[in-house]
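Submission sheet (multi-component)
Chains listed below:
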Amino acid sequence: MVFPALAVVGIFSLYPAMDSFLLSLHRIYLGLPSLGEPFIGLGNYTQLFQDPVAHQAFIVTLGFVILSTTFELLLGIGIALVIHEHFKGRGWVRAAVLIPWAIPTVVASQMWRFMLNDQYGLVNLMLFGDQVEAYVPWLADPWMAFGAIVLADVWKTSSFAGLLVLAGLQVIPDDVYDAARIDGATAWQRFWHITFPLLKPALLTALLFRTIDAFRVFDLVFVMTQGGPGDATQVIQFYGYKTLFTEGRVGYGTSISVTVFVAILILSLFYVRTVGSKLLEQERA
Amino acid sequence: MAGFTLTQLCKSFGHTMVLNEISLEASDGEFVVLLGPSGCGKSTLLRIIAGLEAQSSGSVNIGNRVVDSLPPRDRDIAMVFQQYALYPHLTVRENLAFGLKMRKESTAVIEKRIGDAAELLEIHELLDRKPKELSGGQRQRVAMGRAIVRKPKLFLFDEPLSNLDARLRASMRVELKKLHQRLGVTMVYVTHDQIEAMTLGEKIVVMDQGHILQIGTPDQIYHHPINPFVAAFIGNPPMNLIEGSVHLEGQYLEFHAGDFALRLETHAHIETAIHSDSAVLGIRPEDIKLDIPSEPHLTLSGFIDVVENLGGDHIVYLISQEQHLTARTTPNSRRRAEDPITAYVPLQKLHVFVNQVRIPLELYYH
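Outcome: structure written.
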């Protein structure tokens, strides 16, 4: 009975993963077929761990994960608290909040690229109007370009975090708040002592989704900055893509992909083990 | 400790009026029950007293202090909710301590109060558990404990027993009564259960559709219901109500409902004749006797429809002159369905309502 499912997993997940791993154990240059495809064991991996560009890409990725996830969770809590309130037109606000999330990432990235363009971008126009000489080439500055991809990601996915948090808010019964009001808790105390602890499961779920997602970021960088200027926004996935497809170093590029895969696997397992079991415990408790 | 006064409270949600000119007074230490069907506004009234909801107009006075502009925390009240409303992430001990911590009581005071409450409610061994590890009855005790530790002037209960099963409800009812006797604090108790109202209340406030219909002691409400609604709402099985027409003149009362006819002499003397087609004759099931009573009575003949054996009581459903009546009597195993039966109702026990209002006649003779 489980054979069809196993077959699907085997053909579409297991086989490509295994094949990628095998590829990463060879030295393959697409442009130089004459060199053959010698087996070099973990050679690609030892090279990767000594590669300063890879280190840089890893640090950029880590920075991106930490910054975007933090802002997305904070904003997500804010969004959730607002759209959880009863007010006229709440349905419309809820729908509107989700629009950024519904837009395909490539489209959203392109839109941000246009908006941040140094000559005809909306951001420069709004900030400086017709003072053309003051226009800032946002994506040409290493720090600002990095800020831009974080901003674009936060803009796009905060509402998703908000949605997860909202689901957490909705299961907190109203009369618990009534009880807290009668017990003398102020609005801030109600948030800190009631809402926040009861939101923990939802927050952890949101954190799990967002870190894993942010770790895999690629399309934003591909469209907005191509990893530039310099290597300022070159995240690990983009570096892997570049080595593999533009430089044709199939073996080395694949070893980057496999490393990212393993890193995310470890991250996921860690979450499932610690956070997941805590979540379950809390639900059972 | 203190009583409270409600003055002409009104509440509307949009165009819907949920409370209409509610005025009520309770003295210090009184157990007040707000009784009515769901949607009658009793819970809203309780929430207004608590300050969880703002009234549209009118005033709330607790312990000789107008509290209209005060938030719940400053009203010196505690409330027990239908769904317990315990903080799910805190242990029982932390639940009890929460209100005290918010008020910045010292640790010593908090420990002492929790100890006292735990002893009173016998929840010592539950103190380190989370609410989810407790049964419904235990949760309700904890919820009461949370109210008790605060030592409020006024306890508010919002249908606290309705989520418990019947047996537990009965025992918790007794415990609540004991609790009130021991603490001597004013309590307001919302329920739709007439048994809870009768057993707990010192003052029962019967409400329907945002209005107070009657305020009185359990006995007053039971024996002198002000209208057919109150009459039917209190008592189990409910009062027999026969709709018909009435003619009152001089000392005579004539009542007709189809074949059912009654002519009585009363102690009252009606100067101007009253005639109404909207009259109701009420008879409590226990007032229908199957043995001839010594006092003046009304005789009904008919046959038995169904007999329900409750052990200590029999509920006899009988049909007399096309009227379905319910009688509660002492058990008698010889009664069978379809048997002819003669029943008697002491005239003093008849209730007459004309145009939805009780007519206080001292009914006397045939």
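Remark: Chain A has one domain: 41-284.
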